[in-house]
Amino acid sequence: MTDQIQRLDAAAFRSALARFPAGVTIVTTRSAGGTPHGFTASSFASLSLDPPLVLVCLDQGADCFPAFIAAEQFVVNIVTPAHAKLAMRFATKGEDKFAHGSFEYDEGGHPILPDAAAVIRCELEQAVPGGDHVILIGRVHDARVGSDKPVMWYRGDFLHLGQSVE
């Protein structure tokens, strides 16, 4: 018996993934020299409650990739509808991502969105290769929630909780 493996249609795969609504985060860190770095991620999930672990996936081709691999800590900011433009900027290569953001900085100098739906501060536990991405596993050492609702990413656009989908 021979198995015939068909080549995956990349556009169909991307389209299928777009049918799965995902939360939107802006993940931030700072370099050893104090420079802030960040990226937008919808590939974020809880991994473990004991110990408290989360994971987020970072494209190995991202400008900030070296900073995150070298970082000891990172922050996951869960985005609200008010952060849509900011999330798009953090998803774009070459942008001065922190030029127009309303970030505050924690005692370690890590950028935090004060009006995020939630802020989760982590120690980098492990970086695991995963195809063209790396899976950053963070041990959560602090989490706080805000009062605004998060926003979702669905079919290439932002979707607000409670909004109907056509």
From the structure above, extract its key features.
NADH-dep_flavin_reductase; seven-stranded antiparallel beta sheet; Flavin reductase ActVB; 166 residues; Flavin_Rdtase-like_dom; globular; three-stranded antiparallel beta sheet; 12 strands; 3 helices; oxidoreductase activity
Report on this structure.
With 166 residues, the chain is mainly beta. It has three helices and twelve strands. The chain has a seven-stranded antiparallel sheet with strand order 3-2-6-9-10-5-4. The radius of gyration is 17 Å and the shape is globular.
- Biggest sheet: strand arrangement: 3-2-6-9-10-5-4
Q: What are the segments in which pLDDT stays under 50 over at least 5 consecutive residues? A: none
Q: What is the number of beta strands?
A: 12
Distance between the termini: 44 Å
- List SSEs in N-to-C order: HEEEEEHEHEEEEEE
**Tell me, what's the shape?**
globular
Taken as a percent bin, the fraction of beta residues is 35-45%
Please give the share of residues in helix.
Answer: 10-25%
Largest sheet: 7 strands, antiparallel
In angstroms, what is the radius of gyration?
Answer: 17 Å
Brief account:
The chain is mostly beta strands and about 170 residues long. It has three helices and twelve strands; from the N terminus they run αβββββαβαββββββ.
Fold topology:
Blueprint: H1 10-18, E1 22-23, E2 25-30, E3 36-41, E4 44-48, E5 53-59, H2 65-70, E6 73-78, H3 84-90, E7 104-105, E8 111-112, E9 118-130, E10 133-145, E11 151-154, E12 157-160
Antiparallel strand pairs: 1-11, 2-3, 2-6, 4-5, 5-10, 6-9, 7-8, 9-10, 11-12
